[in-house]
Amino acid sequence: MKSAQEGAAALYHSQPKGRSSLLRNIAKSYDLYLMLLLPIAWYLIFHYGPLYGLQIAFKNFNPAKGILGSPWEGFGHFERFFDSYYFWRLLWNTVSINLFSLIIAFPIPIMLALLVNEIRSKSFSKWLQNITYIPHFISVVVIVGILNVFLSPNGPINMLIEAFGGTSIRFLETAGWFKTIFISSNIWQNMGWQSIIYIAALSGVNPQLYEAAKMDGASRLRRIWHVSLPGIASVVVILLILDVGHFMNVGFEKILLMQNNLNLESSDVISTFVYTTGILKGEYSYTAAIGLFNSVINLILLLMVNRFARKTSETSLW
Amino acid sequence: MSKQMAIKKTSDERIFDAVVYAIAAVIIIIVLYPLLFIVSASFSDPAKVLNGEVWLLPKGVSLDAYTNILHNDKIWVGYRNTIIYTVVGTVINIIMTILAAYPLSRPDLPGRGAIMVLITLTMFLSGGLIPTYLLVKELGMVNTMWALIVPGAIATYNLIVMRTYFQSSIPWELQEAAHMDGCSNWRLLFSIILPLSKPILAVMLLFYAVGHWNSFFPALIYIRDEALHPLQLVLREILMISQSAAIEGGSVGLEDQILLSESIKFAVIIVSTLPVLIMYPFVQRHFVKGVMIGSIKG
Hints:
By secondary structure, chain A is an all-alpha fold. Helix content of chain A is 75%, strand content 0%. The longest helix of chain A is centred in the C-terminal third of the chain and has 30 residues, at 284-313.
C-alpha cells in the first residue's frame, strides 16, 4: 500500500495535470489490477485464443505446421459444406429442434410461474417450487439413461400403451419421435428452474394493481392477463433474447447422447456433426468452418431479435 | 342482487382455485413419478423390473444392485475421480470468479467498462469447439484433469451475478470508510466483502460443483485414459452402451450381460445423483436470490 502511494505521488509530480488524477487512480488501484491479472489472462487465452485459432476455418490446418504456418484455403471449406448432401439435413434439424423448443418449451416456465403465483397456500407453493427444481440438478447422462429406461420396449410408457390395447413403440430408435422426446424431456427437466426468475419478477408486481383490478371487477384470469403478464413482460423479452443468443447450440450434449444410427435422420445437428467429424475424424479445418458458420448464423439471429425487441417493446440487451 | 353477485364470485373463485390446485398436483406427479420409479426399481428384483412389473413401489425387494455396485471397481474409480475434479475445480472456479468479480464491482476502478465489454463479449462470441480443442491440446492438457478444470475456470454468467451482488448488496460507503482507515483492497475483500457475501458464495458453490459433478463432454473429448474417467463417463457406459448392444446384438450370450447391467442401472443413477440432492436443501433457499440478481440488467 505504501509503495503504491509513493508511486502515485511520483506520478503526480511527473505528469501534466488533468491526466494525473486518472493515473493516480490507476496507481491507487494497483492491487485491484493485481486481482484481475489472472482472470484477464484466462479470458485472453481461453476465449480470445480460440477466436484467433478460428482462422484455420480459412486454412488447411496441419498440426505439424501450426496455425500460422498452415496454407490458406479461402472459402473452400464453406463451399464444400454448402454443397454436401447433408447440409440441408443438418441445418433443418438444428433450426427445427431449436425453433420447436422456443415455441413449445419457452412459454411453459412462464405459465408455471403464473400458476405458482395464484396458489394462496405459501407452504404448498414452496413445495411445488422445490419439487420442480430437482430435475435441473440431474446430469444429462442420467436424464438420457432415464429416458432409455422409460421408453424401452418393456418400460412403463410402453406397458401403459399395451395396457390400453396399443402396440409398443420403439421410441428411441424412431427418427420421427426424436424431437418430441428431446423437447418434452427438456421441459420436464428445466421448467421449474427456469420459472424461478419469473416467480421472482411476479413477486415484485405492485399488489395495489391487483387490488385495483379486483375493484374494477376483473376475474382472476383477467388479472393474470392484465396485471401479472405485463408485470413480467420485460423479463420475458430479456430471457427470449438470451435464449436466441444460443439458439444454434442448445442441448448439444443431450442430443449427442440420444443419437443412434436409427434416429440420425432427425438427430444429426451441426454441433454433433462438428464433434464426430472434427474431433473423432480429425478434419479440423473443415469442421472449424462449419462451427464458424453456426456461430455467425447465431450472432445474426441475436442481433436481429435484439433490434426487433428494442423497436417494439423498448426492452433489449443493449 | 349484490349478494347474488358476491356468491357467484366466490364460487367462481373456488372453481379457479380448484383448477389451480389440480394443475399443480398433476405437475408434481409428472415431475416426481420418474424419480420415484427409479428409486423403487433400484430396490427391486431386476427380473421383475425388466418384465415391467414395477409401477410405483418396489417388487421383490432386493439390494443386489447395490451390492453389485460395491464390487464394481470402475464405478469407484469414477467416483473418486469426480470427487477430486469437483473439489479442485470448484475451488479454482470460486477463487477466479471472486478475483474477477470484486475489482469489477468497484465503481472507482479505471478501465472497468472496457474490461466488462471484453468479458461480456465472450458470452456471444466464441471460437467454438474445434479451436478450443486444439488450444487445450497445444497446452498439453489432454489426458490430465486440468483439461476439465482450467478451460472452464470462470463461467461468465456467474461472474456477472457475483459482481452485481457485490455492487448492490454491500454499501459502497462501508468500503470507503474502510479505505479511510487505511484498509488495503485485499484485506477489504477478505474481512468485509466475503463475509457479507455468504449467500451468493453458497449459490456459486452449488452451481459450479454441480456443473463439475454432472459434466461429461470435456472428459469425453480430453480424457483417453480410463483410470482418469469421471463418474459420468462410467455412467454413460453403463446406461447407454448396453442399450446399443441390445439394439444391435440380441444374441443369446448377451442376455445375461444385459440383465446384469440392467439390474445396476437404477442403483447407479441413485448412487451418482445422491450427493447433489443431499447438497440441495442447504442451498435451496438462496436460489431465488442468486438467479434474480443475475437477471438485473447491467
